């Protein structure tokens, strides 16, 4: 942010972000996991996670976010799309039509019931994070 | 048969491995990859031995739509498949040497093997839709192979042309196949043959026939679509030999042969197909006489020969079908050889212009031998198989009930050209002195893998002529039986006694030799003639049509794509308003009044906030104020969602509003000056009208949806089955990821594409910024 050099930098935002961002990320995972039964889901979870990451970019700097991200957002988005596609392909190997929901009978602790729709939602989650962060960072880096 | 059908799919896998293999082994990968067509050849021969009737196998494809993958290997498929796999093997070996030091050798292998597998698919598919899929795959691989030297403009243009012409014909053919499918209720070609009376009585039959014929004509380079084939000579020579002479261009001939029992009974067949073939036969031959490039000479005679095959199939008599099948085999053998020879000559001497070539026999004795054999076959001289083939063609035309002398005369004319071209390409560069000596041509010796493949083909042509009662006779008999749908005997022999056909052959040969000898006068004459006529030729028509397409595209882009966001918004809003109003007026007589529900007091608060913010947005004097008021509207709407039990919606709306603010923060320093007040009054007036109309439309639509009770059972279905079928209590999410998961899949794909678009656009902007600084 070019303007930051001229302006007095706020201390509150970066410090608050240190605590807020992990909380928001945890919250986004929470939204993702409870999505099937309660309010939430991969899309909204992804949006919340993306806002958390962008908050970090604004509070510190876009390049700090680049350093923080373990993977390129383009890769995250592509991987998300891939995960969703694979979740649709799994039933094909069991002789069922494309995208038939298949579930593991046993509920897992914390996560609850797991099946191909869960995997699909996970793909949506990653894709939304990737796409939003990618686009916004594109704008941020424009200077 | 199972292994054969699997080996088609295996071909696609092998093609994918081929590039890695090529990186590992360099040009020696050819020896490994050639094993694939070799196994196919062995499978074919074993299958042919073990059963006399056509083996068939069926796999489920989309059973819910009644689609099955069926593969049949009848005599016709066998003949084609043998050519595809056999010549394919030689071409891979040859290509490895020919493109030895080429940096893109792996692409050659990749696409040649993809082509081979698809072409095998075309000939053994029993299902018309599968045939179409493989057919288009051959067009695509042809596109990539013609454009192999993509650095050259001419290569790319030729590749495009071939793809557009054959692809366009392919679409017409698809429509025709679908029509036949509609008539019979099946896409199995065998069913069509059984239901032939049903098809012939249908009114759609002639439409289907013409559409399918268009597909065959474009693929097999029939007049007036012949122009792409000579242009496709931009491809490396092994590709020309394989795709554009021996196999792919015969797909159209194959299709006509395959559908002869289905459509041959139509009156149109006999009225149209022979004439198209005849026209192509003669035009190709005459056009060939104006060429000096070895490959162009061969290409135009290929066009002519393809015309001959279509012509014979068009006649449709048992004799003509026999001749067509024999000609198919013969032509692949001698033309494949000559193309490979032309490649060898080009490789050695660096030119393919017959005027500059001569006396190469000393340097390239084996190539010269192969070329000589193939040329003799092409000229129809015994004991080569080309002689038998030509006798058969003359016999079919002479004993045809209508206009036998005209047909025979034109056939003789085309064959005269064949004799001359055979001499020019197969004999002259090796034995005669060059007509114009060029100093910079220094031919080198032939390399072994550049003469073995053409030699093998040439020897086959010789062997099949001498031992004509062997493989050639069996194969042609089987293919003819498959086309005519009844067991047909074929007897091939070199000597028939003193028949009229023999005299015709003799006449052809004598005139042909005459034409061969006056080449130095004849070629320039025809070259200038064709140059003069070229401005009315189909090649020019093609480029005119392409230019017209581009200018229409440009015109409508300038019309619709102004590049200003406000215009896009105006167009979108106006279009939706018009469409909604039209739909409303045609469906409802009066506006249904929804039931009035008293709002709660906290509803009113947010509604008031929304109204006030909307008014303030219009008056706002800075971007910050605008974004704040818009944010207030967005958040209030989200809260209204919450109040009216749409928590999922509300949450997404909150998140989106937040992200909008973030986006704004990121770009605020880069936006241009806020210029709201600069708009002239009339432009503001338009804005006002459009936005009010848009608002009214949305209000109307909302009232309409709440006033008309939905009679759909969907909502109930989702509510009831969400937990039991999809194991989720949140119906909204279950709809998104399970019931309508495919929609979501599409949407996230669009999201990804949008991101790529943003990336590309911003990248462009950055690039132009960088350029602007200079």
Description:
Chain A is built from six helices and no strands. In chain A, α3 (42-59) crosses α4 (62-68), α3 (42-59) packs parallel to α6 and α5 (73-93) packs antiparallel against α6. With 143 residues, chain A is mainly alpha-helical. Chain A has one domain (9-140). In chain B, strands 1-2 form a two-stranded antiparallel sheet. Chain B is an all-alpha fold. The model of chain B is unreliable at 770-774 (pLDDT under 50). At the A-B interface, α3, α5 and α6 of A face α29, α32 and α33 of B.
Concise description?
Chain A is mainly alpha-helical.
Side by side, the strands of the main sheet of chain B go 1-2
Question: What share of residues are in beta strands of chain B?
Answer: under 5%
**Whole-Å distance between the termini of chain B?**
67 Å
What structural class should be given to the helix and strand makeup of chain A? mainly alpha
Task: Quote the average pLDDT of chain B.
Answer: 87
Poorly predicted ranges of chain B (pLDDT <50, ≥5 residues)? 770-774
Radius of gyration of chain B, CA atoms, in whole angstroms: 34 Å
Salient structural properties:
heterodimer; A: 143 residues; mainly alpha; 6 helices; 69% helix; B: 774 residues; two-stranded antiparallel ribbon; 33 helices; 2 strands; disordered C terminus
Topology:
The complex is a heterodimer of chains A (143) and B (774).
Chain A: H1 2-6, H2 12-34, H3 42-59, H4 62-68, H5 73-93, H6 116-140
Chain B: H1 2-25, H2 29-33, H3 35-50, E1 56-62, E2 67-72, H4 75-98, H5 105-124, H6 128-146, H7 153-184, H8 189-194, H9 196-201, H10 205-219, H11 228-231, H12 237-246, H13 251-263, H14 267-288, H15 294-315, H16 318-349, H17 365-379, H18 385-398, H19 404-426, H20 428-431, H21 448-466, H22 471-484, H23 500-517, H24 519-533, H25 538-560, H26 565-587, H27 601-619, H28 623-643, H29 647-667, H30 681-707, H31 714-726, H32 731-739, H33 741-772
Antiparallel strand pairs in B: 1-2
Helix pairs in contact in B: 1-3, 1-5, 3-4, 4-5, 4-12, 4-16, 4-21, 4-22, 5-6, 6-7, 7-10, 10-13, 12-16, 13-15, 14-15, 14-19, 15-16, 15-19, 16-17, 16-18, 16-21, 16-22, 17-19, 17-21, 18-19, 18-21, 18-23, 19-23, 26-30, 27-28, 28-29, 31-32, 32-33
């Amino acid at each position: 942010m070019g303007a930051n050099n001229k302006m007095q930098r706020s201390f509150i935002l970066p410090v608050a972000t240190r605590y807020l961002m992990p909380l928001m990320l945890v919250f986004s995972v929470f939204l993702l996991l409870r999505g099937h039964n309660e309010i939430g889901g991969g899309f909204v979870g992804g949006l919340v996670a993306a806002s958390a990451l962008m908050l970090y970019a604004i509070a510190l700097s876009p390049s700090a976010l680049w350093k923080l991200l373990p993977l390129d957002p383009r890769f995250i988005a592509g991987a998300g799309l891939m995960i969703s596609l694979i979740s649709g392909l799994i039933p094909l190997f069991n002789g069922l039509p494309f995208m038939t929901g298949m579930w593991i009978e046993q509920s897992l602790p914390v996560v609850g019931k797991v099946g191909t729709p869960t995997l699909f939602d996970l793909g949506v989650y990653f894709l939304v994070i990737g796409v939003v962060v990618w686009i916004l960072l594109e704008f941020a880096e424009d200077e | 048969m199972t292994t054969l059908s699997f080996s088609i799919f295996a071909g696609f896998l092998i093609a994918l491995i081929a590039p890695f293999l090529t990186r590992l082994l360099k040009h020696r990968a050819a020896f490994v990859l050639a094993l694939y067509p070799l196994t196919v050849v062995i499978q074919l021969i074993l299958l042919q031995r073990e059963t006399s009737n056509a083996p068939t196998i069926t796999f489920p494809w989309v059973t819910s739509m009644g689609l099955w993958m069926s593969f049949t290997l009848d005599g016709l498929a066998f003949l084609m498949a043998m050519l595809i796999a056999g010549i394919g093997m030689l071409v891979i070996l040859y290509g490895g040497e020919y493109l030895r030091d080429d940096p893109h050798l792996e692409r050659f292998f990749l696409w040649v093997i993809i082509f081979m597998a698809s072409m095998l698919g075309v000939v053994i598919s029993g299902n018309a839709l599968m045939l179409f899929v493989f057919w288009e795959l051959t067009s695509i691989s042809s596109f990539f192979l013609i454009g192999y030297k993509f650095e050259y403009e001419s290569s790319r243009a030729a590749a495009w042309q071939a793809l557009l012409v054959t692809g366009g014909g392919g679409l017409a053919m698809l429509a025709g196949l679908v029509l036949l499918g509609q008539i019979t209720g099946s896409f199995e070609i065998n069913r069509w043959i059984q239901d032939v009376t049903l098809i012939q009585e249908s009114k759609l039959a002639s439409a289907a026939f013409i559409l399918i014929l268009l597909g065959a004509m474009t693929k097999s380079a029939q007049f007036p679509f012949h122009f792409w084939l000579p242009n496709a000579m931009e491809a490396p020579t092994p590709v020309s030999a394989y795709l554009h002479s021996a196999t792919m261009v015969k797909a159209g001939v194959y299709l006509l042969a395959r559908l002869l029992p289905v459509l041959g009974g139509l009156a149109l067949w006999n009225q149209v197909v022979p004439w198209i073939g005849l026209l192509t036969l003669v035009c190709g031959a005459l056009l060939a006489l104006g060429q000096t490039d070895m490959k162009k000479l061969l290409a135009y005679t290929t066009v002519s020969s393809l015309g001959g095959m279509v012509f014979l199939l068009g006649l449709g008599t048992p004799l003509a079908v026999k001749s067509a099948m024999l000609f198919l085999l013969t032509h692949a053998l001698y033309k494949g050889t000559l193309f490979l020879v032309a490649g060898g000559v080009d490789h050695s001497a660096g030119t393919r212009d017959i005027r500059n070539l001569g006396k190469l026999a000393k340097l390239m004795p084996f190539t010269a031998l192969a070329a000589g054999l193939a040329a003799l076959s092409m000229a129809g001289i015994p004991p080569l198989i080309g002689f038998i083939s030509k006798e058969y063609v003359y016999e079919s035309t002479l004993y045809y009930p209508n206009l036998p002398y005209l047909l025979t005369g034109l056939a003789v004319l085309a064959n005269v050209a064949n004799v001359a071209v055979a001499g020019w390409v197969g004999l002259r560069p090796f034995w005669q002195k060059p007509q114009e000596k060029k100093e910079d041509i220094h031919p080198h010796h032939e390399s072994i893998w550049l003469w073995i493949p053409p030699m093998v083909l040439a020897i086959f042509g010789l062997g099949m002529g001498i031992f004509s009662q062997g493989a050639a006779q069996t194969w042609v008999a089987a293919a003819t039986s498959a086309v005519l749908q009844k067991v047909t005997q074929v007897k091939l022999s070199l000597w028939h006694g003193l028949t009229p056909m023999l005299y015709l052959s003799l006449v052809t040969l004598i005139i042909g030799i005459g034409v061969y000898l006056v080449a130095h006068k004849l070629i320039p004459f025809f070259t200038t003639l064709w140059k003069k006529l070229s401005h009315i030729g189909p090649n020019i028509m093609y480029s005119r049509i392409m230019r017209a397409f581009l200018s229409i595209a440009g015109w409508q882009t300038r019309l619709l794509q102004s590049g200003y966001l406000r215009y896009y918004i105006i167009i979108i809003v106006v279009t939706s308003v018009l469409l909604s109003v039209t739909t409303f007026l045609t469906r409802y007589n009066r506006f249904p009044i929804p039931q009035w529900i008293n709002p709660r007091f906290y509803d009113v608060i947010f509604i008031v906030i929304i109204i006030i913010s909307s008014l303030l947005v219009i008056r706002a004097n800075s971007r910050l104020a605008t974004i704040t008021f818009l944010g207030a509207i967005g958040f209030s709407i989200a809260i209204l969602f919450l109040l009216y039990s749409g928590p999922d919606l509300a949450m997404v709306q909150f998140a989106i509003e937040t992200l909008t603010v973030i986006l704004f923060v990121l770009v605020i320093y880069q936006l241009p000056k806020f210029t709201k007040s600069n708009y002239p009054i009339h432009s503001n007036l338009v804005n006002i009208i459009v936005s009010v109309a848009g608002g009214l439309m949305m209000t109307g639509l909302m009232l309409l949806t709440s006033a008309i009770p939905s009679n759909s059972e969907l909502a109930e279905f989702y509510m009831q089955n969400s937990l039991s079928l999809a194991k989720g209590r949140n119906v909204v999410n279950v709809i998104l990821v399970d019931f309508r998961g495919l929609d979501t899949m599409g949407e996230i794909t669009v999201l990804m594409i949008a991101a790529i678009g943003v990336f590309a656009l911003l990248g462009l902007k950055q690039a132009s910024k960088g350029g602007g600084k200079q």
